[in-house]
Give the backbone structure.
Amino acid sequence: MAYLEVGKGPPLVCVHGTLGDFRTWYAVLGPLSQKHRVISVSLRRFYPEHWDGVGDDYKMAQHIADVIGFIEQIEPRPVDLMGHSRGGHIAFRVAQARPDLLRKMVLAEPGGDLDNSLDPAATPGTPSAFAKRILASVNKVKEGDIEGALQNFVDSIDGEGVWRRLPAAAKQQLRDNIFTLLGQAHEARKPYSKTDAEAIRTPTLLIGGGDTQGSLAANWRVLAEHIAGAKTAVIPNAKHWMFEQDPEGYGRVVTEFLAG
Amino acid sequence: MQSLPVNGYDMAYLDVGSGPPLVCVHGSLCDFRIWGPAIGLLSAKHRVIAVSLRHFFPEKWDGVGDTYSIAQHVHDVIAFIEKLDAGPVDLMGHSRGGHISFRVAQQRGDLLRKLILAEPGGELDATLDPDYKGGPSALLQRFTIAANKVAKGDIDGGLAFFIDAIEGPDTWPRVPAMAKQLLRDNATTLIGQVRNNRPPFSKADAESIKMPTLLIGGANTKGLLPKVLNTLAANIPNAKTEMIPGTTHPMFEQAPQKYSEIVLNFLAS
């Protein structure tokens, strides 16, 4: 498992989301590494691996087991764990399974659906409209329409027309990981339940972008109500990739939480 | 990060991919991360080694001391390639990093296989430019003001002054947040930059570059950079030039696919 390690201090393990990799955190490496040893991982199958999408080990459970196995090899433990989007889902599950490994946790717009213990409107066994829309990108990748897949992915999250305006550099980082979407169709991600949230004992900060819309904006606020002692922060004028849009603000909020 | 001890300094680098080694040298106010948009494609065929020069992030330099100079950085890159111990490498530099790569090629051609200069920084002396006047850069006075602000702790004030001096008034507020942060992370190098002490390129310098050399530019870049690029290309014996349409100085950020394709073709040929 590849990772980038920068800075000195208590270890802060960072887990990227869908189509991300260790570069996801580049914008906040400076602010965060002032006080921490920032360890930015690339999950199995993500860049720097050049995966062709063949094989069945791109699973939520596999990535959770990998992060646990990774943290078990870090000294000193317990560590601080931060996850963005799908990486926030992974961090949440690590905290549920192995709280002994963690000191504090930061979830930046964690991904995943709510089951009907948290959202009465949810239909058991059925992915949310948002999850279905993201999965439409998988079919586009299968058809060879990489740009269409990326556009659908980004616009589903941050709004129509956002992909087109995204800088080429940001586009390329997502494109480098496009075949991981083929795995994501069968990753077997379970929705969050009330019991799951209540099981979290790790001091937790949930962060969102002030302008994020839809379930990515709603779900972390619901989780925050059910995680004991959870703290929350909103980064104004930012969306799902809030740490790229305001690296200083994001770095300040996280550093203060981890110090407190 | 990984690091190698060079000239008494732990030089940090990112090492990604496998294949023939390609060492990448960033420019002013940048660090190893600047190559982020291109490393995905380049590392499919190469072992990409993106260094951070002495005093750039991840170091948090206080700006004190005289170890920020072209000569020091050239010296460090030479020692780095020697310590890497991977045989002759391909060397790629952007902007000021292109200047450094050029000087490495001039001094230690034995360490390099091929050379890539992406809009190398620097001036042309009288042997290459009949209009050459010499003396300090017209911008030096303003850069010094910017550096003094940074030295006093006014990071954003210093950077705003610096960026606006180069790109025009009120550019800084429009710089994207990520790019601003990269500049902030390297702001103290501005203090070293004003006493950079960079000799201009001469005709003899260019003619001494023996390895296959690719010069890459942004087709829309204005001013001295394209002039230097074209002049060097005309005087380096074994040089090729590629201009990337629709791009300016950070051309590999603006067109990572085209840039990588050009570099990979050149390195494979």
